[in-house]
Design a protein that fits this description.
mainly beta
Length: 955
């Protein structure tokens, strides 16, 4: 049901609400997509209009269309033709003259079609209402769409863009009734678009400014459809034809900064299902804000923040940049101040002459990724250009922001701000005195403002936190801080600009108070050492507490010509040295800080002192030589010194002295019987300095020993004998050795005995006492006498093998040269091959145990033997009718036996001159092969030679 009222009255009420935010009861919820009192500033630029279609062109499948193509050319119904009717509790509805609801203004409450899940106002899942750009919760929203009504509906919001309204925040929450049995084109739909006027048409700004949602659930054939729980969509399964899909309140940022001075239109299209049986509507709320950076100005306090910059709120992402050129942005290459003549005198924040997305002229700010950026003092130092490295008084900042209407189509926006560098930057200088006073100079600067020195003040503390009772408080740019005790203190410096006491900086600085050191050299044990004695030089400078405070403490020693430096890393506070002459020591000590005097010279807090080391020499002593005495005899040793004055003598049995055995320069002792030698130590001390010298002397007990170079020699060789452990010596030999006679009293002798000899040594002490004799033997081994035997005594031509034996006395090694061939061994057997000579030379080299060698040479004769036995004879022929053996030697024994093939003896003879005619017992033997067996012995041999063979008898 609708209610009609006077149109003029309604229009005036609407304009009143839009312009002034009328507060009448019936108009507490004026139409609009934002709280009316804060949004509408000029009705000529902001107005609403709506349109309902009773006859919408359809496609062949009876689809009800939605979108700008269905509204182009149609007349809009302005707000003046809308009428008001009350609907529900606490909300009002607007309807057209035909009584059909088109727009409903909503306040608090929830949507029953979503089981009260969607609030009429933007609210998060926790129930907290979202706020507008002024931090106030929304009080109204507009619902546009159908709810079981005929056709499609649209809401237009038209505005002219300027610098103060070019950044829009749009909240929307769609609700659609979508049966799962419908196909995609049959279901409800939502379109959000931003367009601008182009001729008589409204065209899309670009594809990023359009968001299209179909009410179709996701299916196999439509995978891009809605899914419960994804992208903010939720499903209420009412069954059949009454399923409901709704989307949580969703925020979209719309930047219109690229369309300044142009008129744009926000369009919200809703379409019911094709059968007019299912609704589709959307709740809309919004806000606008300037496209600019807000600067809070100079922040007071101790931080290095120069200014706090805030970009427009609710963007998806922020990235901050600062200028790199170092130019003051006023009067140089760009100008921030540009008057927007189409608005009410509001200054835009636009940098003319700078490419807004040109990152070459901008450098990214560290940690600049939030809406708020704290501009630091370091941001005002030029990084390139003519002013590189210099601090600028003015800097420009850029914030690159990302926003979107459709999350899949993000776009970037840029805002800029000129910032003055007014925050004081603290800096001090200290001028030190070596007498517990420090001058503090305020060198702080404010690059874009002067400082108020009359308000500068210093507060001094003992702790680095600046808390507790102050030690002192001083004002002005130059102050003197004086304390009785040297050490580290702290001052809190407060500095403000000359025109704004609230633009101040305060910070705590360490303050150091110095005291000159009082140099002093300590010497341990004293400054009158003996030559070579270790002396410790100690820096015992009186430094009070500051000796523990300054890491830079330095000291320089001058020790004669030696220089030694000490500092925190190499303290060198204690040096150990020894001296051989009188030496001057100088010490310079200073702390690690310095100050510059009026002439520009560096002055150190230092002190110098010196001390002399007087050196005394130790006695130079001469001790008697070691002595050798016989067992039980007494002896004495002595010591002498080469200095005048008083000296003392002390004798000890151990070095270092703990058992004094005598005093004086002479010691008389009898060594103990159970030792071979005894050492005594003497200490001579120079008085009164106490310079000491030590020496020792050893008393040996005679126990002579004999040593020799060899124990055995060959006849004619020599051997060296020598004695030890006695003072002097006497020698004797048995049997007598003429080579010893001229050496009998020497410690070492060289002798050449003719035979094995025993030598006796008698050792004598310093007092000519005699020790027990000791002996040694030198064995004389004769050279071998060559004796050779050979078996046989000649070389047999038929058996040319001869055995040679070395029978030489004293021989232990034999080497043979037999016809040019060397063989080793006492007995060797040699087979001769070259028998074309009468004899062969043989040489023997025979050696005794010491390798002494004799040799002999002889010749062994060659004897030749020949015995020839034929293998065929023919008794019937005169020239070979007998079988006989031919030899050139007369044999001492001979025997031959001949057998036939049956083994029957047919002939035998003991005469080497036999001749067999081929008969046996007077009978002719048949032709054939016969076997002979011959034995014989040649003269000079004892062995029988046996030969067997065959002979052929031919007839």
């Amino acid at each position: 049901m609708s209610m009609h009222i006077n149109k003029t009255t309604w229009l005036w009420s609407l304009l009143c609400a839009l312009l002034f935010g009328c507060g009448t009861t019936s108009w507490a919820q004026c139409p609009g997509w934002h709280n009316p009192t804060s949004f509408v500033t000029n009705n000529s630029q902001f107005f609403y209009s709506g349109k309902a279609l009773s006859d919408v062109p359809s496609s062949s499948d009876n689809t009800i269309g939605v979108g700008p193509q269905y509204y182009t050319g149609g007349d809009l119904i302005p707000a003046a033709q809308l009428s008001q009717t009350m609907c529900g509790s606490g909300c009002s509805g607007l309807s057209l003259d035909d009584g059909t609801h088109r727009f409903v203004v909503k306040g608090t409450g929830v949507d029953p079609n979503t089981n009260n899940a969607i609030s009429f106002l933007p609210r998060n899942p926790a129930g907290v209402y979202y706020t507008d750009n002024n931090g106030q919760p929304y009080t109204h929203s507009i619902r546009v769409g159908t709810e079981c009504t005929y056709g499609a509906e649209v809401l237009y919001y038209q505005m002219k863009v300027n610098s103060q309204n070019c950044l829009l925040t749009l909240w929307y929450a769609p609700v659609v009734e979508t049966p799962t049995s419908h196909t995609q084109y049959e279901n409800s739909a939502l379109i959000l678009r931003v367009t601008k006027k182009q001729g008589n048409d409204w065209v899309l700004l670009d594809e990023r400014y359009e968001y299209i949602v179909s009410g179709q659930p996701q299916t196999t054939s439509f995978p891009q459809g809605l899914v419960d729980g994804q992208n903010g969509w939720h499903h209420i399964n009412n069954g059949g034809y009454s399923d409901v899909w709704y989307k949580d309140w969703t925020k979209a940022m719309i930047s219109l900064a690229d369309f300044l001075d142009e008129t744009v239109r926000i369009e919200v299209y809703m379409a019911a299902c094709v059968y007019d049986a299912h609704f589709a509507y959307c709740y809309i709320a919004g806000d606008f804000q300037p496209m600019q950076i807000v600067s809070s100005g100079c922040p007071p306090g101790s931080s290095t923040v120069v200014d706090t910059l805030r970009a427009p709120r609710d963007m998806v992402s922020y990235t901050w940049y600062r200028s790199t050129s170092g130019f003051d942005i006023q009067g140089h290459n760009f100008d921030l101040q540009y008057l927007d003549t189409t608005s009410t005198g509001v200054v835009r924040t636009i940098l003319y002459g700078v490419t807004r997305n040109d990152t070459i002229n901008w450098v990214r700010c560290t940690n600049g990724n939030q809406r708020q950026y704290l501009a630091q003092a370091s941001d005002f130092i030029a990084t390139e250009g003519a002013n590189q490295g210099q601090t600028m008084g003015v800097q420009s900042f850029m914030c690159k922001m990302t926003s979107y209407l459709d999350p899949a189509k993000p776009f970037e926006s840029f805002v800029y701000q000129r910032v003055e560098n007014n925050k004081p930057q603290l800096k001090i200088d200290t001028i030190l005195s070596c007498y517990n006073s420090t001058r503090l100079v305020n060198l702080s600067t404010s690059p874009n403002r002067g400082l108020d020195s009359s308000r500068t003040h210093w507060t001094f503390y003992e702790n680095e936190y600046g808390i507790g009772e102050p030690l002192d408080s001083l004002g002005g740019d130059n102050v003197f801080f004086t304390r009785n005790s040297a050490g580290d203190y702290y001052t809190k410096l407060w500095v403000c600009t000359e025109d704004d006491a609230n633009c101040y900086t305060e910070g705590i600085f360490p303050v150091r108070v110095l005291e000159s050191p009082h140099a002093h050299i300590g010497v341990l044990p004293d400054d009158q050492p003996c030559i070579g004695a270790d002396v410790m030089l100690v820096d015992s400078t009186f430094l009070t507490a500051q000796s523990h405070l300054y890491d830079g403490w330095q000291r320089d020693w001058k020790i004669g010509n030696e220089s030694v430096h000490g500092d925190a890393l190499q303290p060198n506070g204690n040096l150990t040295r020894n001296f051989d002459e009188e030496t001057n020591i100088r010490l310079i000590v200073r702390n690690g800080l310095n100050y510059i005097d009026e002439d520009g010279a560096t002055v150190w807090c230092a002190d110098t002192t010196q001390r002399t080391i007087h050196v005394f020499s130790s006695p130079n002593m001469t001790v008697s030589d070691d002595t050798i005495v016989c067992k039980g005899n007494q002896t004495h040793v002595s010591v002498e010194v080469d200095i005048d004055g008083v000296v003392t003598y002390e004798w000890y049995e151990r070095l270092g002295g703990s058992n004094l055995i005598a005093s004086g320069n002479t010691l008389e002792v009898t060594p103990p019987d159970n030792v071979e030698h005894k050492t005594y130590y003497v200490k001579v001390t120079r008085q009164p300095q106490g310079c000491e010298a030590w020496d020792s002397v050893t008393v040996h007990i005679i126990k002579p020993t004999i040593h020799q170079s060899r124990t055995a020699i060959c006849q004619g060789d020599t051997v060296t004998l020598w004695g030890e452990d006695a003072h002097h010596y006497s020698w004797a030999a048995a049997p007598g050795d003429v080579t010893l006679l001229p050496q009998q009293t020497q410690q070492q002798v060289v002798v050449s005995p003719t035979g094995t000899t025993i030598y006796t040594l008698i050792g004598h002490g310093n007092d000519d006492c005699d020790a027990m004799p000791v002996t040694t033997t030198v064995e004389v081994i004769p050279y071998p006498t060559p004796i050779v035997s050979t078996t046989p005594a000649f070389i047999d031509s038929e058996d040319p093998q001869v055995t040679f034996t070395d029978n030489s006395p004293y021989s232990v090694h034999s080497e043979w040269n037999i016809g040019g061939m060397m063989e080793i061994g006492v007995q060797v057997t040699h087979t001769f091959e070259d028998l074309n000579r009468d004899s062969i030379p043989v040489t023997l080299y025979t050696s005794n145990l010491l390798g002494c060698t004799s040799d002999t040479q002889f010749y062994i004769p060659i004897q030749r033997f020949t015995t020839w036995i034929p293998n065929t004879f023919t008794p019937n022929k005169p020239d070979n009718k007998y079988f006989s053996i031919a030899t050139i030697n007369q044999l001492e024994y001979f025997n031959i036996i001949i057998y036939d093939r049956r083994g029957v003896q047919v002939f035998a003879s003991d005469d080497q001159n036999f001749a067999w005619d081929g008969t046996t017992d007077g009978n002719r033997c048949p032709q054939g092969v016969y076997v002979y067996f011959v034995r014989y012995r040649r003269p000079g041999t004892s062995d029988l030679i046996q030969r067997t063979g065959t002979i052929t008898l031919l007839r």
